[in-house]
Structures are given as C-alpha cells and as structure tokens.
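So, can you check what follows?
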Amino acid sequence: MNLTADFGEAADSPRMEEIFRQLNTLRRPQLPDDDPYIFYDWVLVRRQGLELGFVEENYHLGKAKHLWGTGQLLFVQAYYYAGFDDVQCCEILMPYGLSWKDSREKVRGRMAGAAATLHSSSISDTWDVPEGYRLTVTYGGNPIHAERMVCQQVPVPLRPSQPVSPPNLDQIIVHWGHSVTQTDWRALWSHWLDDNAIKQGSDSGEIDLADSFGVTLHVEPDDGAPLLRAITLHGNRDANAVGWRGKLPQGLDFEDSPNILFQKIQEQPISTSQGKITGHAVWNFHDYTLHVLYSCVDNRLMRVKLIAPGIWKPIEDY
C-alpha cells in the first residue's frame, strides 16, 4: 500500500474507499457543521498504526477565504507510528524503505538522495522528496531510533489580496510604548491600519493585519490611546496569515530549521521548551525580547515575536 501516491485524492473517491476497506475501518473524515474555521480531519486506525489526514481543498490550495470550507476533502497526510498507548506498530511498507529499527544515521543514509532539503531539530529530520511531498521522521527510545513518520502534501502558500511594502524592523522598534494612532506609525501600514482596526485593537489588545502584512500588533490601552507593546511576524499560514515578507531579526528566515536557529543565535536563551510538535526559545536583546516558535514537524520557523524590553515574563511569573 503506497499511501503517498494517493495524495490529492478526494476523500469520497473510489480509490480512498478501497484504502479504507484495506485498512478495515468504517471511519470517514468529516468537517464539523458547527465550526466554520476547522478545515482538517483525521482518521486514526489504531490496529494498523496509521493515521490519514484530510483537508478542505480550497483552504489547501490557497483560494479566496470566502471559499474555504465549501469544497471537498482531499487526502494529504499519512502518519506512520511505531506504537504508543493503544495504537499498534505500523507494519506496512514505509516510504524509502524506512524501518522502525533504523537509527538516525541509518535514516539519513536512506534519505541521502534528498539530503539537500534536510531540515532538522534535536528530535526530528524533514526532507522535501522528489515525489512532491514532505517527509518527517521523529526519533526516540534508547537507543535512539525512528518512532514516527509523517508524510504530507505541503499546502499552497497564502497570498495577500493586494501588494504591500513591509516596514523595516528599525521603524517598528522605535515605536515601543508609543500610540498606534500616530500619523507616522499609521503610514507604515497604509490604509490597512484604519480607525476600525485600531478600535478593535483597543478592545482586544491585538490589531490583526495577518491578511495583509502577516503581522499581529499587540497593544495596551492607555486613556483610550493603545500603546505598542509587541509585534508578531507570522510565517505563511501560521494563524492563517499570508506571511511576513520583510526581514526578520538576527538574520533569521522562516525557512530556517530549529538547528539553524540556534546556530544563528548562539547566545543562551532565557527560556526554551520543546515538544514533539513545536518548540520555542526566548532571548533578551537591547532593543527587544525575541520569542521564536518553531515546528518540529516541518522543522521550520513558524512565528517570530518582538516584545518591548522589560515586558516579557515566563508563564510561572504570572
């Protein structure tokens, strides 16, 4: 069963029905009727150690937002598990001849043909393979060996409806603690930072410019004039944003792997945390506190947040 060859199949197609039959599962993917902002569903087959992921086609293909949720579900992800809890070990043939007995070195040897695309974290390796999908192997155990593999068809990047010119970071950080109603600040964001956006930010503490610039402005009300406290620069599709297209601090790039992140910023972070899905690190610099969120599945940066100096606190301090 070569699941990755069927990426892009409609969830209700005869081919997918045959796959469900072979896996001996009655479950079928379905989006909830009561939540218009959910575009994925998964079918976990515990006895087979497999999970199949499906996504609404217009969302996956980066179509206009008003079309999201109106199309069919497509098969775009396959998760292979070495076994955990009540999920059995997957015993079907895996891509590139990978085996649960493989060490990290052995896995990398099998994937040598795609070595130029390798992105790594401390727990996982990711490759974009010639067949047109992204493959991630997560390691664990003692001795270290492969314990999970994710194959996914990467979604099409989201694009702004109109071209924008992002400001540079120096223009942003000089406004820490200043009102976001100031004319020179509003000019950086053109007509997107209008009175309505500022009013909503005053109420919620966040000004959403994710659809245009790929940013979220974090503000604090002060006698009705919201003051700038932080800015989040989103990678493409993080929080369904179009993605920040300006420069990132410290020479970072959203295509950087977690390993490259820590090579570029060699100072000791003041806070770090890493799970199997995501990780983050925080550094204090003179002009800002830097918070970086990264994916251990795509092994790329997801989100970069600059915070005015002296504001950030670890969760346990609140």
